[in-house]
Amino acid sequence: SSNGLGIDFSHTEGSGASSSILDDYEEGAWTPEIKGTSTAGDYSSKTRVGKYTKVGRLVTCFFIFDGNSGTGSGNFELQGLPFNVESGTGGIAVLQYNSGLDIPTGFNTPILYLTPGGATAQTRCTSDGTASHQPIPYPTTATFVRATFSYTTTA
Prior knowledge:
Elements lengths: L6 E2 L12 E2 L2 E5 L3 E4 L6 E13 L2 E13 L5 E4 L12 E3 L1 E4 L7 E8 L5 E8 L5 E3 L7 E10 L3
């Protein structure tokens, strides 16, 4: 039922539920930024699309970034998430790319590591057969990346 204050799910509430009212739903756009960790840099031309849906504390994001001639340095970081990632949590998502990423030898599967307490995601790649990871260098050539991911926030 709805009484103007949200949707009441108390009739199906589990024993550990702290709230049974859904009173927070939001859809919107955000601007994904590809930056370097040593020098932020920018791209000479770029197309950026970012969309999100927030239901309660759960945020689901989608982004596409298509850019040419990056001027940053250091490691590749995604900035500008629509809400801070909840401290003590984080998250991981697979990062799809068509070009521009320099994956270190012996590593594969580029991922986003959502930074707890911040509005950023570090890029990493996993190793072949071990539990280690390596940061992905800032891409200075034409770059196309995209991902869909979810995380919790306190906002």
